[in-house]
Amino acid sequence: xxxxxxxxxxxxxxxxxxxxxxxxxxxxxxxxxxxxxxxxxxxxxxxxxxxxxxxxxxxxxxxxxxxxxxxxxxxxxxxxxxxxxxxxxxxxxxxxxxxxxxxxxxxxxxxxxxxxxxxxxxxxxxxxxxxxxxxxxxxxxxxxxxxxxxxxxxxxxxxxxxxxxxxxxxxxxxxxxxxxxxxxxxxxxxxxxxxxxxxxxxxxxxxxxxxxxxxxxxxxxxxxxxxxxxxxxxxxxxxxxxxxxxxxxxxxxxxxxxxxxxxxxxxxxxxxxxxxxxxxxxxxxxxxxxxxxxxxxxxxxxxxxxxxxxxxxxxxxxxxxxxxxxxxxxxxxxxxxxxxxxxxxxxxxxxxxxxxxxxxxxxxxxxxxxxxxxxxxxxxxxxxxxxxxxxxxxxxxxxxxxxxxxxxxxxxxxxxxxxxxxxxxxxxxxxxxxxxxxxxxxxxxxxxxx
Length: 450
Hints:
Structural class: alpha+beta
Strand order of the largest sheet: 1-2-6-3-5-4
Shape: globular
Oligomer: single chain
CATH class of the largest domain: Alpha Beta
Largest sheet: 6 strands, mixed
Order of helices and strands: EEEHHEEHHHHHEHEEHHEEHHHHHEHE
């Protein structure tokens, strides 16, 4: 083979050695799970304090309150204003951030290792003593409302939001956007945020992840010193079983008159993070639409030229999240793109995976693992996933072995179990006049204009 022959796919290189850092686990008196990974190559430290205050625990009436509360944390505390808090952090070269999702809230800190003793109290103060001044609450609320309004004008966001409502039955948390609705966010008050912090910002079931050039004993002393008075458990999340409003395949068209493109979403309720098929299903998704060389991309982009790109993904959450294929195509090829998407799904489910494509996906997934763990923050994020989803302590130590141990038969079985082409809900945001007729001619399901 000529080294310049670009018609041939290069062979995978050898998998380089990589060891996930050793992690010490210690229970703290408050009920927190402390995880410390010592990295000595840089004098930096990454701290992630996770507690179970997430959107999955809120009713539709309060949707978005967890996200809104997290966003407003940095507006100031009972001891200092937002600007004073920012100055205190900046003076020691520290940086904080708050992220809220379905499972909970994470308050993160990054600083030099020798500054952690000064930075840690500021992190705790931000989380435990928020003041929620009215002007800051108003600013954050208007910002979130503006983002929600913007989503209604953006075709891609509009398609994703409409698809979410079609995948999950009404009344379930997953049937709405993570940021809530205009009605629920607009009704959120300062008192509601304070009440949410008081009842939900509790340590039991949470964890403290510290990665950096620090001794675990020192970290434990710091944690007990600054968190010793933080006690209690958040309210139990009302259990729910994510289910679809219907199982018959159907097409929903959101009309945007004059649009020259269509945003397409195809999906259904997927799998939870705890599924035993996680590794095999992840490889299966890579084959369908998770990489540039996936079946969907080779069909819709390379063969037919319908799109610049198409992706498929599983939203692995504590309960089954969405499985979804997403792409954007010209109005004139909308029906063709839907047809080919369904064909590739059906072909993979019925025909299974091939040895070659599974081997390539395994090598790719194992090969990039170390590249995703180059910083203390990236390692800390992975350890937080262990806490969030109750994974085994050595989960990431065995990760590459588990990936490379996936067989073609396991991939094919996982795909058959978790991808259901006959049950997908198809959402198209585009010019109804141009796309409804061709979509009806496909004969793959009822077509409704919404």
